[in-house]
Amino acid sequence: MKLLADENIPLDTVELLEDAGYDVLSILKKYSGISDREIIHRSNKEERLIITFDKDFGFHVFAEGLLPKMGIIFLRDAELIPEKTAHLLIKLLQSGSSFKGNMTVVTEYFVRQRKFHV
What we know:
The protein has 5 helices and 6 strands; from the N terminus they run βαβααβαβαββ. With 118 residues, the chain is of the alpha/beta class. The chain has one domain: 3-Layer(aba) Sandwich (Rossmann fold), CATH 3.40.50. A 6-stranded mixed β-sheet has the order 2-1-3-4-5-6, with helices on both faces. Helix 1 links the parallel strand 1 and strand 2. Helix 1 packs parallel to helix 5. It starts with a strand and ends with a strand.
């Protein structure tokens, strides 16, 4: 699975995801400072699932209609340490859930999905 880690995803988390075998494009490493709109465009171009702590993506999707084809995982708990974030994501990604066309909201205690139309 191809992932796009927003610049607010720690590099330690990115490295743990890569160690687990995921293809991760880190905005922090490669495109620091680009806009959320550019992130959505890049995720569509490269068919990557966006991972972010940034709640603004919900606004872009549901109010503006900017739709990332592969979906978004929004980590709602910004207090998570990088290792815990990576393990939470790996468990979620291995769960067999479909993320395409969904905004997936994740905390340490629950996962909720809201469908949007691509």
